[in-house]
Amino acid sequence: MQKKDCFLVGTVFKLHGYKGDVNIYNDDDIFLDFNTITYFLIEQDNTLIPFFIAKARPTKRNVILVKFEDINSEKEALAILKKNVYLPTKFFLKSNKETIFEKKLLGFKVLDVKLGDLGRVTAINSQTPQQLIHVSKNEKEFCFPMHEQFIISVNDKKQIIEIKIPEDLITLN
Predict the structure, then answer these.
(1) Is domain 100-172 classified as CATH 1.10.3210.10?
(2) CB atoms within 10 A of CB 103
(3) What is the pLDDT of residues 20-42, one digit of tens each?
């Protein structure tokens, strides 16, 4: 399997005990369904090697505790410490793409076509039926729905969200 067909889950960042268990730091807090995932791909010498999972579970936010089938000692686990961990893209759920997209928008500059610079994205509220983008500038804050009616474009390189929003919506907050 090649890297272009996979996504980065995270890194083996710490050993857990002396029987070969490891903790994987899940960079983007990606949801993984351990009922369908039977292996992780670990990068060694620029090659992705499959390691089959005996047990895996999330222990806290961004951390997965894993026991691999063929790693039974601290010494064997040291060989994969600080290595990148991948999965084939078929395991990447749609909800993960949305979560990562939302995290990337934090800090983006918000420019309105008429009003100009409105501030920076400080939060995205996904707890409401319609996702809300919170924007702040000079201690003033407002929010607007994450909807194609308002968002004209998102420029990842320049970290700019171009919007067209009624001024009343900004002063409503």
Answers:
(1) no
(2) 12
(3) 999 999 877 777 878 889 999 99
The span from the CA of 137 to the CA of 108, in Å, is: 12
pLDDT tens-digit profile of 90-140? 877 554 455 545 667 788 899 999 999 999 988 877 667 777 888 999 988
Copy the structure tokens of residue 41.
């791909």
Identity of the amino acid at 67:
K
Taking alpha carbons only, the member of 15, 30, 7 closest to residue 65 is 15
Q: What's the pTM value of the predicted model, to 2 decimals?
A: 0.58
Tell me if 115 sits within 8 A of 167, measured CB to CB: yes
Query: Could you give the 3-state DSSP secondary structure of residue 97?
Result: helix
- Candidates 140, 126, 139; CA nearest to 172 is 140
Q: Collect contacts of 117-124 with beta carbons under 8 A, ≥24 apart.
A: 118/142, 118/163, 118/170, 121/161
What is the location of CATH 2.30.30.240 in the chain?
100-172
- State whether the Cα torsion 30-34-36-38 is positive or negative: positive
- Pair of tokens at residue 85: 């961990």
* Pairwise CA distance, residues 100 & 173, whole Å: 27
Instruction: Look up the CATH architecture of domain 3-92.
Output: Beta Barrel (2.40)
Distance CA 122, CA 108 (A): 8
